[in-house]
Amino acid sequence: MDNPQLFDNHGRELSYLRLAVTDRCNLRCTYCMPAEGINYMPERELLSWGEMFRLTRIMHEMGIKKVRITGGEPFVRNGLLDFLTDLASLKDLEICLTTNGVFVGDYLESLQKLGVRHINLSLDSLDRDRFNQITRRDDFQKVYDNLLRLIQAGFQVKINAVVMQGKNEEDIITLTEFAREHPVSVRFIEEMPFNGSGLVEETLFWDHIRILDRIKSAFPGLQARPFLYGETAHTYDLPGFKGNVGVIAAFSRTFCGTCNRIRLTAKGQVKTCLYDDGVFDLKAYLRSGVSDEELKKQLLTLFNKRPLDGFEAENKRIGVITESMTTIGG
Predict the structure, then answer these.
(1) How confident is the model at residue 325 (pLDDT cuts 50, 70, 90)?
(2) I need a labelling partner for 212 at 20 to 30 A (CA). Which of 53, 59, 81, 98 fits?
(3) Who contacts 328 (Cβ-Cβ below 8 Å, separation ≥6)?
(4) What share of the chain in percent tops pLDDT 90?
(5) 211-250 b/e with 16+ CB inside 10 Å = b?
(6) Residue 272, annotated ligand binder?
(7) What's the pTM?
(8) 3-class DSSP assignment, residue 289
(9) What is the pLDDT of residues 233-255, one digit of tens each?
(10) 232 is in an annotated binding site
(11) Has 225 been labeled as part of a binding site?
């Protein structure tokens, strides 16, 4: 069988895999999970490193050009660097990583040797007290120091900040100001309902419009960049700034029309959209002994039934959203 290219039923090319390697995390962010955490899956019920490599290789043969390693927190699962080494053997595959920044400082040299240059760092506040309240952990200084080390080492860093009413509105300005002297992209994200509680807001105070208005009020020279196919953030340059800012309408879902992503959870669920409830158990299918060709046919079938956008995907769910972001990989 030749290597068929992955397109969905709406004609969108799929070139980006978001791969969650664990559902475990060392933080307890309020927008992601309850204070007591969630019931983590035993490792035997997660995809093995070998299974994840096989699936990534197959999808790479079908047109995936970029893989982002997510979690949970990727560095809490033993064997991550060996897995990244295997991924680096796949020709012309861009490897990116999302982390909360607590442990990444121990691996900067290894990541550089493997060619991992793009790091997304989740950081919702530059104030230690607010950071502690949001993450329920006192790790701010370690994360901030590692952020500076990443920048100094030449990594291309994006700071992801979820904007929450009554928790970190002040940081819209302080994080934007951080981009004045540092070559980073600060991306403000609408809060999503994946907090593990089953409670979903029908409306959102800090939507993408209000976030952008707050930035413009302090930095009126904001200049929009072109919105590229497959992007989620509307990004902006600021005169005299080394970095830039962006806003991701993750709750409003204004960017679905050019979505080029495949999501694979740590337990092997394929998600054709962030807002669906998992459309196929790829782990069980894989462990049934199927061939590479059969896996490719199954992937083509799954994405030939893809919702047009996140609203359609949510409407087709069975029940309300109850999962934690750490279980689906962001």
Answers:
(1) low
(2) 98
(3) 20, 194, 263, 265, 269, 271, 274
(4) 77
(5) bbebbeeebeebeeeeeeebbbbbbbebeebebbbbbbbb
(6) no
(7) 0.92
(8) coil
(9) 999 999 999 999 999 998 888 88
(10) no
(11) no
Q: Where are the beta strands (DSSP E) in the chain?
A: 16-20, 66-70, 94-99, 118-122, 156-163, 185-190, 223-224, 233-237, 244-248, 261-264, 269-271, 280-281
Query: pLDDT (tens digit, 9 = 90+) per residue, 173-213?
Result: 999 999 999 999 999 999 886 654 555 556 688 999 999 99
C-alpha dist (Å) from residue 264 to 70, 79, 213, 296: 10, 18, 34, 15
- The C-alpha atoms of residue 158 and residue 122 are separated, in whole angstroms, by 8
Consult the annotation and say whether 149 binds a ligand: no
Structure tokens at 228: 């590229």
136 annotated binding-site participant: no
CATH architecture for segment(s) 16-328: Alpha-Beta Barrel (3.20)
pLDDT at 277: 81
Does 96 show up as a binding residue in the annotation? Answer: no
For 199-245, give the DSSP string: ---SS-SS-HHHHHHHHHHH-TT-EEPP--TT--EEEEE-TT-SSEE
The domain ranges of the chain are 16-328
144 marked as binding residue: no
